[in-house]
Every structure is written in structure tokens, then in C-alpha cells.
Design brief:
heterodimer; A: about 110 residues; about 0% helix; B: about 120 residues; 11 strands
Chain lengths: ~110, ~120
Amino acid sequence: QSVLTQPPSVSGAPGQRVTISCTGSSSNIGAGYDVHWYQQLPGTAPRLLIYDNSNRPSGVPDRFSGSKSGTSVSLAITGLQAEDEADYYCQSYDSSLSGYVFGTGTKVTVL
Amino acid sequence: EVQLSESGGGLVQPGGSLRLSCAASGFSFSGYAMGWVRQAPGKGLQWVSLITNGGGGLKIYADSVRGRFTISRDNSKNTLYLQMNSLRPEDTAEYYCAKMGGSGSHSGYWFHYCGQGTLVTVSS
């Protein structure tokens, strides 16, 4: 079971901005552990989008950005494109579970 | 270019065993921690296990697989393994191996690259 909560779905028109929240608890995000974000296109493996809350790996467009302020974590996609339709997951570490945890996942739909 | 290629999945009866392999190339395998993530059909991602770099001194497991699964690595073959015993229907999933990112404490690691996955189906 996931211990990080995300909205099941978000949608937006092409060119718009959407945000995805990721809510945890005092044993993961609240404890100060970093958050990472992944994109999963249908039928493919997860792809790293953001690491350490706000860093983009090479090759990831700057339309994707991550932020963390206290216990509030989010992923923003600006200038939404049709190719951004995918599932998005946050991930962190949980000290109570002594392991890695993923968010429940958010499906992004481009209208 | 980092390449990870999983193999060994298939159909197995409950209580059975499988060994997954992940052949790695394009990076210095022994220098990186490696992990396994799975995804049940239509469900989200779930972390399974991690092994640290070098000789793999640290191995950690999700509660759901601890005592049944064993992670290992052969740096001479650039290969990661997952031995899965006492398999249950709820272990049915696509299994992805991952090259971990990060340094220092493993609590800060992330899944930097994932392979294309291998499907494990546990059913009678």
C-alpha cells in the first residue's frame, strides 16, 4: 500500500499549467527526506523526472519542475503537451518502514 | 548509454520459485546501488528491494517480501538478481530493475534508470 497520497487525476488543455501534490507524513516527507518524481507513459517503464525535490536529470524538459516547502511537495507541468499524458508518481523514504515509498499515482489527461 | 535488461519472469504456481536477472551495461555496475520495483496489473509502483554498491554490504526489503525474496549482484557479470521463493498470487506484477541515483545515505536514493521489466504471474 502507498503511504504518499496524490490526486487520482488532473487535466488541462494544451499549453496550460497543471500541478500534482504529494502528501506524506512525519516518517517520510515530514521527516525531511527528499522527494523524487517519475513519469510512466502507457506500457512503458517509469522515467525519472525530478530528483532531490527540484532537480531535473539531463534530457528532461524544463516544463517540468518540482518544489518542496516544509511538508508540501508538488510537481508542476507548464505548457502542457499531448505527449505529457501519463501517470506520475512521487517517491521518498520512510523511516518507519525502513524503505522507499511511492505515491498513489496521478493520471494526467490533456484535454 | 545505460541499458538494463530483465529476464526470468513467467508463470509459476503459488509456493513456487523464480529467479529474475538484470543485465546491466553502459555504466560502471559495481559502483552503483541497484534495486527492484514492481507494478501489479493496473496498480501503482511498489519498491521491492535494494542492494548497495560494491560488494552489496547492505540489502533491504519491503515488508511484503522480506524473508521470501533475496537480492544479490555479480559485479563480474554486471548482473543483478532477485531470488523469489514462496511466491503468492499477490506477487503477480511487472518487475523492473533500477540503477539507483544518489550518494551518501541510502535514504536519499532514487530510481534513476529502469529496465523494461519482466512479468511474473503467480497462479494455479
